[in-house]
Amino acid sequence: MWFLRRMLRISWTAKKKNDTVLEEAHTTRLLISKIRKRQATFFGHVMRREKLENLVTTGMLEGKRSRGKQREKLIEGLADWLKAGKSLEAIEATKDRKKWRTMIANAVKQGT
């Protein structure tokens, strides 16, 4: 965003929202969507394998929960981004590679 503001010669004291700066530059936030896409492809890879990484990622380990506010899990963030509804739907979608890839492609097209 700093670089776009410099290119468009927008003063740092100007009270412009990032969305308006992106509209003026006729661009979107590419970095966040690339990161999310890579997270989703890696998550699909891990979920198709029935190993320790699968248990850790889904959070289905035995034991007590830690105190305080619980951290947001990777699966919950990806389910929101993919608009899969619940995290269980996203986990089930990873079993079918073709369906998982189309979900990722649709989410990237919609942008975030």
TrEMBL record:
It comes from the Eukaryota. GO terms for molecular function: endonuclease activity. Keywords: Endonuclease, Hydrolase, Nuclease. This is Endonuclease-reverse transcriptase. The lineage of its organism: Eukaryota, Metazoa, Spiralia, Lophotrochozoa, Mollusca.
